[in-house]
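Chain A, query sequence.
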Amino acid sequence: AGAVPSVTILFAAIHQAEALYTELGDAGAFDALHRAFQLMDREIQRREGALVKTIGGGALAVFPQIEAALE
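Chain A, predicted structure.
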């Protein structure tokens, strides 16, 4: 078996994401979170990472280098 590569895992949560549903309604909150995740994904990819999963107001990403995750 080959060596398993080492990666850095990052979880980020949008503060008070649940409040968006009250303020903007379901469609508005979904759209706002979708735009935020698109921006996150662009920055994650710029640092050679990958957005693995989003759920609610949270995002899970992996990076090949710890420094990239901390930028």
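The chain has two helices and three strands. The beta strands are 8-13, 50-55, 58-63.
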